[in-house]
Design goal:
This protein is α+β, with helices and mostly antiparallel strands. The protein has helices spanning 11-19, 26-36, 45-57, 77-99; strands at residues 61-67, 70-75. A two-stranded antiparallel ribbon has the order 1-2. InterPro entries: Tscrpt_reg_PadR_N (IPR005149), WH-like_DNA-bd_sf (IPR036388), WH_DNA-bd_sf (IPR036390).
Length: 102
């Protein structure tokens, strides 16, 4: 049976992938998301540590090393493609809103 791809990413999921263009561990991921969104999007530890294994299983991210008991992850090419798909989906939604005067 073929593996089913995750459908739509939540904002938190999107930003986790977005910040992993460079290798980071969990706390860095949470801090960077808060920083780049000016606090509008936050990802709690519970959510993050649930997402990371899912993303790893989907091959969107990979474990690049373990340093001082911290797992350091980075986005994969497949993860970058998923981000691009999500960006295109969001742009279509924005375009539709513009068309209906939203």
């Amino acid at each position: 049976m073929p593996k089913r791809e995750m459908e739509v990413l939540t904002p938190q999921m999107y930003y986790v992938l977005l910040v992993l263009h460079q290798p980071m561990h969990g706390y860095e991921i949470m801090s960077e998301i808060t920083r780049i969104t000016n606090g509008e999007i936050t990802v709690g530890a519970g959510s993050l540590y649930t997402l990371l294994p899912k993303f790893e299983k989907e091959c969107y991210i990979k474990l690049v090393k373990v340093e001082n008991n911290k797992k350091i992850y980075q986005i994969t090419n497949l993860g970058k493609k998923k981000l691009q798909k999500e960006k295109e989906r969001m742009l279509k939604q924005i375009s539709l809103l513009d068309q209906i005067g939203g």
